[in-house]
Amino acid sequence: VALKLSAAAVTDVGLLREVNEDSVFTSTDLYAVADGMGGHAAGDVASSLAVTVLRQISDSGELTPETLIQALTSANSAILTSAATHAGQAGMGTTVAGLGVVRLSGVEHWIAFNIGDSRVYRFADGQLQQLTVDHSEIGEMVAAGVIDAATAQVHPRRNVVTRCLGTDPPPDPDIWVFPPVPGERFLICSDGLVVEVPDAGISEALLHEPDAERAAAVLVRMAREAGGRDNITVVVVDHLPTSAEARIDDTTIPRTRLLGSL
Ligand code: CA
Questions:
Q1: What percent of the chain has pLDDT over 90?
Q2: Residue list, CB under 5 A from ion ligand 1
Q3: Is the dihedral of CA 170, 134, 184, 20 positive or negative?
Q4: What is the reported pTM?
Q5: How far is the CA of 232 from the centre of ligand 1 (A)?
Q6: How far is the centre of ligand 1, averaged over its atoms, from the C-alpha of 95 (Å)?
Q7: Is the peptide bond before 170 cis (omega within 30 degrees of 0)?
Q8: How far is the CA of 230 from the centre of ligand 1 (A)?
Q9: pLDDT digits (tens, 9 = 90+) for 61-80
Q10: 96, 55 in Cβ contact below 8 A?
Q11: Is 2 in contact with 57 (CB distance < 8 Å)?
């Protein structure tokens, strides 16, 4: 990967759950969060199978949209196979959301993806944008403009996921491919963060903690302080500005022109 990146991941059981059913994975070209579902710690198995398959694809050569989609299909099969052969794993599943680097016509691009309600956000110029659309009853209502994000955050059915890994037929992932812009920052997280911390709080933390490791730690701490009712997993990926860009950004280019150039 030629992009200058800095990343940090934190996963936390939260204050009320006994088991952390989230799994997280980071490498040089792929970052992912999986949020498992299923009783008797089977959710933990499902999310860990998902990140294990993603790790294999990341280790086995250059990531492409095709190998990523193939990996998600393999992860789905691995979860179904395990569920069929182990007592107590029936019906287990997991979300997955992530960000990777792929090469298109020789040029590095981001690829963001999700299945379920784990999220990928982009933060740039002080603006937080959710790139993924939640595959949940409520998330689909938000995307359709039926209810707003604030209503969704407290909606009693916000946990009902409409797509997950561990289903037959396999779920379709949503995929976005887009060009990198130095200075941008990404957040990948499970719903244990967003049920506790509104977007404004997330923005605030991402704005005031320039270091990826500190930002990830602060976000998890905020979710715990707000109740920590679910497992909390956060990955922060910084696409570092080059030193020349950082200097120009600070001193010479008016803010409006920077925004306009994106
Ligand atoms: Ca969760």
A1: 81
A2: 35, 190-192, 230
A3: negative
A4: 0.90
A5: 7
A6: 9
A7: no
A8: 6
A9: 999 999 999 999 999 999 99
A10: no
A11: no
